[in-house]
Design brief:
The chain has 2 domains: 192 residues, 2-enoyl-CoA Hydratase, Chain A, domain 1 (Alpha-Beta Complex), CATH 3.90.226; 47 residues, Lyase 2-enoyl-coa Hydratase, Chain  A, domain 2 (Orthogonal Bundle). Helices cover 45% and strands 15% of the residues.
Length: 267
């Protein structure tokens, strides 16, 4: 039965729970008995959640109940599909994960335990990834005779490079939390049990940015990175001009120049 999370008028399946903490929405994968494996119901719930966020939400924290973030695709759903059906199913995951990566607000994911297969593809669609020391990463599709289908060949190769992804898929190798940090699979590494607090702190800081700056980082920055240099400069100039001439940005700059805003300090 679908249910509505506290403070959010969004109906979700039982495999997802959510709550509103100020301007931060916290979404939890809630299939611990299945190691938070991703089935179609859960993925549709992700689409509903990220497609229906109210304006009051400025950032999202994605984490998981139980000892694992996500063990990937629920293999019990690997029914026999013909080629056309299989392509459509992969495109369905692409659509949902694009809604996360190129949505309205930045998403911070908190990773622990298994971050495997489709679970790693889901994490790669978020903007900031906080890993606890229990986190480990793998792409076991090669040993199962299948191939990534949730955007991993696009997102993960950009995060860790083709060579590392080739290694994981061909050999079944597992990366621990420190190796994942070095490979670019996370940006932060914290002790076990400390991930959610760190994720919330980051999300609250992100929520305090101007909406356009967050939008530009999410939508313009990755596209600039894929353009040729000249095109990237043009897009950067236009984006900077739009951001810098906004009323809120000008008010913040005035506050800084008048010494009413804090200076940058070491974290």
């Amino acid at each position: 039965m679908a249910r509505r999370p506290t403070g959010l008028a969004i109906e979700l399946p039982p495999s997802l729970t959510a709550e509103l903490r100020g301007s931060v929405a916290v979404l939890t994968l809630s299939r611990p008995e299945k190691r938070n494996a991703l089935d179609d119901t859960l993925v549709l719930g992700l689409e509903a959640f990220f497609g229906s966020l109210p304006e009051a939400v400025k950032s999202v924290v994605l984490h998981a109940a139980g000892p694992h973030f996500s063990a990937g695709l629920d293999l019990s759903e690997l029914t026999r599909r013909d080629t056309e059906q299989a392509v459509a199913h992969s495109a369905f995951w692409h659509r949902v994960f694009d809604r996360i990566e190129f949505g309205r607000v930045p998403v911070v994911s908190v990773l622990h335990g298994a971050v495997v297969g489709g679970g790693l593809e889901l994490a790669a669609a978020t903007h900031i990834r906080v890993a606890e020391r229990s986190a480990y990463y793998a792409l076991p599709e090669g040993s199962r005779g299948i191939f990534v289908g949730g955007g991993g060949s696009v997102r993960l190769t950009r995060l860790m490079g083709v060579a590392r992804m080739t290694d994981l898929m061909l050999t079944g190798r597992t990366l621990d939390a420190e190796e994942g940090l070095a490979a670019g699979l996370s940006q932060y590494l914290v002790g076990d049990g400390a991930g959610l607090a760190k994720g919330l702190a980051l999300a609250e800081r992100i929520a305090a940015n101007t909406a356009f700056t967050n939008f530009a980082v999410m939508h313009a920055l990755p596209r600039i990175a894929e353009q040729d240099r000249a095109s990237g400069y043009v897009m950067e100039s236009l984006t900077a001009a739009i951001a810098g001439t906004g009323a809120e940005a000008q008010a913040r700059m005035t506050a800084f120049l008048e010494k009413r805003a804090p200076k940058v300090k070491r974290s």
